[in-house]
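Team,

Forwarding the record for the chain on the shared tracking sheet. I've put the sequence and predicted structure together so nobody has to dig through attachments.
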Amino acid sequence: MNEPGAPEGGTRQAAAEARDRATAGDLGLGKDLTGLRDLTRAQVEGILDTAEPFKAISRRKVKKVPALRGRTIVNLFFEASTRTRISFEFAEKRLSADTVNVSSSGSSVQKGETLVDTARNLEAMNIDMVVMRHGSSGAAQFLAERIPSNVINAGDGRHEHPTQALLDLLTLRDRFGRIEGLKIAIVGDILHSRVARSNIWGLLACGAEVAVCGPRTLIPAGIDELGATVLNRVEEAIEWADALNVLRLQLERMDGGYVPSLEEYNRCFGVTLERLRRAPETVAVLHPGPMNRGVEIDSDVADGPRSVILPQVTNGVAIRMAVLYLLAGGRPATAASAVA
């Protein structure tokens, strides 16, 4: 990431003042949502509670409410994305916001413009929020400290993907009626996964137990210091867990031989129907997508009765509506009236 020199004092002061003003209603989220690491249980559960009434909007014939009418939101995606970008677009449009989509391909970024220069030019057009995905860890926080608009992290490098973790939490709560006390095993490429980190912090904040499982080459050193248990065999994870969150191999981030082959990975760590037969029928299977069928998960599992993958997609829109609503100054207590 190209980082310019220190921003002008006026810009930094404006960002600080905006951060002080915007406390996201009763939750005290602040101006931005760049991660879950520092959120309390009350804040995480407050976001989940706020998302509940927004679920109903997607089931209506007219899927729109005026909660963010007049607000302008820029979707700034420096990495390829389909599900997350479209989910945010649906959330924004269903709240009646005006949206602008910017990608690195074909933009001034390819001509050498820095991240902050891009954002400042957008700020000059009087935008209200930026939803950003970037390949560098910490990019969302870097931007949030330099512009007064709200910044939502849609994934930054290997760091965090907070709205994905929130929708996973909401899906688990829908399925089990609670999060506290659940045992959640995250299986797959933990090393390169921003989803894993956000899930660990969100789940632990809400009282769940978390384990990770995968090849040792894909388990980051010190993961136990985050509060997660390391399980060596996928069979052990399946027997232990109430739910499995299955992650794909992020081949685009790998620069070496982390696994012998995709076939070998499936043989040793793939979540297959054969392996799931040993688990209670209540075990749920999540996947943040995109899936590599036949590698980390078999099709008969992804499409089977244990799968909550499509409910995750549905909940993604509600969670992102809730985050947008809260950062725009909405309150959990008024969410129900906002969708009436």
